[in-house]
UniProtKB/TrEMBL annotation:
It comes from Halopseudomonas xinjiangensis. One of its GO terms (biological process) is transmembrane transport. The chain crosses the membrane at residues 6-28, 40-73, 85-107, 127-148, 168-192, 213-233, 239-257. It is a multi-pass membrane protein. This is High-affinity zinc uptake system membrane protein ZnuB.
Length: 261
């Protein structure tokens, strides 16, 4: 098997394993639009990274984390509805990123690779960076799992019990931001949210506990990666969109099957 395909498999499967449980919280808390907002802000991170000549993954991570902090701060002020804030920030950061790229005349970048992913171009260095970030997310998610569940099930009750609701909500947003940043090369900034939503949504139909849903989402995400890479290899289609198509087909299959009692 060629090295580039091994790197692609390792990166895609690693992302799927982490996106499953993390995406379950995205589905439970109805945060799909938040994921879109962060993925759009990633393009601004790319533009600033190229303008300042710094590591793009680091620039995207910093941009996503900063946006997550701004979102939590604005939501706590209750100045505007959350969906309105997300809409403003999503389109503003995406447009600002495109403007910054247009102003950097001496920089030429393949936007398609960043918008829709270029999994087969993942290098050994990229793989180490990605797996390191995903490992950090797994450790933090494991430590915060019970608290995240408590806040997700009943936020007001968790607040009464003395749990740091705002800090826990911020931690979840930061974990999503890290995953989006390190996954940029896998499916692109415009498609990353699909891996955080489609596998968990498919697993939700047949799961009876949060843990079952998280595990099922990871398994379905891995199957989507394998199916997408197989489609890309045999049909010469883009790897990122092929993974999303595979995930969508698995979702259709999941909702078509009768639920277990």
């Amino acid at each position: 098997m060629p090295d580039f395909l091994i790197y692609a498999l390792a990166a895609g499967l690693g992302l799927a394993l982490v996106a499953g449980p993390l995406g379950s919280f995205v589905v439970w808390r109805r945060m799909a639009y938040f994921g879109d907002t962060l993925s759009h802000s990633a393009l601004l991170g790319i533009a600033l990274g190229m303008l300042l000549d710094i590591n793009l993954t680091l620039a995207v991570t910093a941009g996503c984390v900063l946006l997550a902090v701004i979102l939590v701060a604005l939501q706590n002020r209750q100045w505007l509805a959350s969906d309105t804030l997300l809409g403003i920030l999503a389109h503003s950061t995406l447009s600002l990123g495109l403007v910054v790229l247009a102003l950097t005349d001496n920089v030429r970048v393949d936007l398609m690779a960043y918008l829709f992913g270029d999994l087969l171009a993942v290098s050994e260095h990229d793989l180490y960076w990605m797996l390191g970030g995903l490992a950090l997310v797994v450790v933090l998610l494991g430590l915060l799992w019970r608290q995240l569940l408590s806040v997700t099930v009943h936020e007001e009750l968790a607040r009464v019990e003395g749990r740091p609701v705002t800090a826990i909500r911020l931690a979840l947003m930061l974990l999503i931001a890290i995953v989006i940043a390190v996954a940029m090369k896998v499916v692109g900034v415009l498609l990353i949210t699909s891996l955080l939503i489609i596998p968990p949504a498919a697993a939700q139909r047949h799961a009876h506990t949060p843990e079952q849903m998280a595990l099922g989402a990871s398994i379905l995400g891995c199957l989507a990666v394998l199916g997408g890479l197989g489609m890309s290899w045999n049909l010469d289609t883009p790897a990122g969109p092929s993974i999303v198509v595979s995930a969508a087909l698995l979702f259709v299959m999941a909702v078509s099957l009768p639920r277990r009692a």
